[in-house]
Amino acid sequence: MQPKYKRILLKLSGESLAGNTKHGIDFDTVLEICKPIKKCVDAGVEVAIVVGGGNFWRGRSSGDMDRTRADHMGML
Predict the structure, then answer these.
(1) Where in the sequence is the domain holding 45, given as residue range(s)?
(2) Helical ranges in 4-66 per DSSP H
(3) Residue 33 domain-assigned?
(4) What is the pLDDT of residues 1-59, one digit of tens each?
(5) Are 3 and 39 in contact (CB under 8 A)?
(6) At CB < 8 A and 24+ separation, what contacts does 22-27 make?
(7) Predicted model pTM
């Protein structure tokens, strides 16, 4: 069966990588996310993935950085 698209862009929130832990990266969750992506790649689809970074900034020790600034940094 021929894929409908040759290329796709998948946008994941950084939060989606945390799984049930709600912070950081849960590698079991990442592996589950990768399974359908690999099926697409194996079918010949080019997959680009964009991961949001807001939670990485919010989760770090931001010192004097306020929440709004940390949110904006995560979107860069």
Answers:
(1) 1-49
(2) 27-42, 54-59
(3) yes
(4) 899 999 999 999 888 888 888 777 899 999 999 999 999 999 999 999 998 776 665 55
(5) no
(6) 23/55, 23/59, 24/59
(7) 0.69
